[in-house]
Write a structure and sequence with these properties.
With 350 residues, the chain is of the alpha/beta class. 26% of the residues lie in helices and 28% in strands. A hairpin with an 8-residue loop joins strand 1 and strand 2. The structure holds zinc ion.
Length: 350
């Protein structure tokens, strides 16, 4: 189960690991024992203390990603260096994993644009993942764990915070005082976007189907929370004419309403499309409204460092629930039922 041949990037999951074996949903992910090896030069072994799952893992389990089993799941991980093939790290160092797969040597990587790397991918999708006892990866994918975070929090934030950070800062150029609408609050990226937008001094508005999740978003500082259908009028009323930025990840079910929710010149930034891959756009709304429709995926290593700095200044992830690695199927079922608010974490005992 070495790193995928397509990427030529050495990533290895070792020891007990949650392995995607069959496209049968959560039941198709099973805990197996994988062989352990020393890290090659330039790589490190991380004894994982906490990993966390994302919708990506559920899509994988459902056979919706073009990934052939077996594959160890999960992009997010935090732990302790157990063996090092790189002088930058020594056993005992506490780290988090930058969840992007890239070659680190191409022109894009060298210019800091990891997201444009021809070997770009996601840990746990394009290589084996972090839901394991020992995760071996290129030393450049490892960053110091923020001291203020628990292991569960450290294992919770990487993918969603990296994604939401790039969406809001680099892509949508969010400014303090602006109004941000976050569609579908509850999911990992949406909750991360709400936390980051608030941290950056923006006013946060959310939509959710669930009354409990709307209430939770308000407790965490959202100005207002709306039903998830036909929300645009309520948003325009509550924001005095519209949001400056909309964070999208839902797609066809909400895009039209999202485009009606912004001010003239507003920005709609999307990182996903959970309700289908094709959406219809009312073109005059786009050009007459002078709107920016922005795509975004993951983020660069420099953006990951910016997230770490924001965490040092008080930004915090939201952990929904923690399961032991052995209960990975139950953890995935919670995502499948869309019951979570924030991140579902897998705890891996030392
Ligand atoms: Zn590259």
């Amino acid at each position: 189960m070495a790193g995928s041949g397509a990427t030529q990037i050495p990533v290895l999951s070792q020891g007990r690991a949650a392995v995607y074996e069959e496209p049968t949903g959560p039941a198709g992910i099973r805990v197996r024992e994988l062989p352990r090896t020393e890290p090659p030069r330039g790589s490190v072994s991380v004894a994982i203390r906490a990993a966390s799952i994302n919708h990506l893992d559920l899509f994988l389990a459902q056979g919706l990603q073009r990934v052939s089993p077996p594959r160890v799941i999960a992009a997010d991980g935090a732990g302790v260096i157990s063996a090092s093939g790189d002088p930058a790290w020594k056993p005992g160092d506490e780290v988090v994993i930058y969840p992007v797969v890239c070659d680190w040597v191409c022109e894009w990587c060298r210019s800091g644009q990891n997201v444009r790397c021809p070997h770009f991918g996601v840990v746990g999708e394009h290589t084996d993942g972090t839901a394991c006892e020992v995760f071996q990866i290129d030393a450049r994918n490892v960053f110091r764990k923020p001291k203020a975070l628990s292991w569960e929090e450290a294992g919770a934030f990487p993918l969603t915070f990296l994604t939401a950070w790039r969406m809001l800062t680099t892509r949508a150029r969010l400014q303090a005082g602006e109004k941000v609408l976050i569609v579908g609050a509850g999911g990992g990226v949406a909750v991360a976007a709400a936390a980051i937008a608030k941290h950056l001094g923006a006013k946060v508005f959310v939509t959710s189907r669930s009354e409990a999740k709307r209430r939770r978003a308000l407790e965490l500082g959202a100005e207002a929370a709306f039903e998830s259908t036909d929300f645009s009028k309520a948003v325009r009323d509550a924001t005095d004419g519209g949001a400056d930025v909309v964070v999208e990840h839902v797609g066809p079910a909400t895009l039209s309403e999202s485009m009606r929710s912004v001010v003239m010149g507003g920005r709609i930034v999307t990182c996903g499309s959970t309700t289908g891959v094709k959406a219809e756009i009312t073109m005059p709304r786009l050009f007459w409204g002078q709107l920016d429709l922005l795509g975004s995926t993951m983020g660069n290593a420099s953006e990951f460092e910016a997230v770490l700095e924001a965490i040092d200044r008080g930004l915090r992830p939201v952990v929904d629930r923690v399961y032991p690695l052995a209960d990975v199927q139950a953890a995935l079922s919670r995502l499948e039922a869309a019951e979570q608010f924030g991140k579902v974490v897998l705890s891996v005992s030392a």
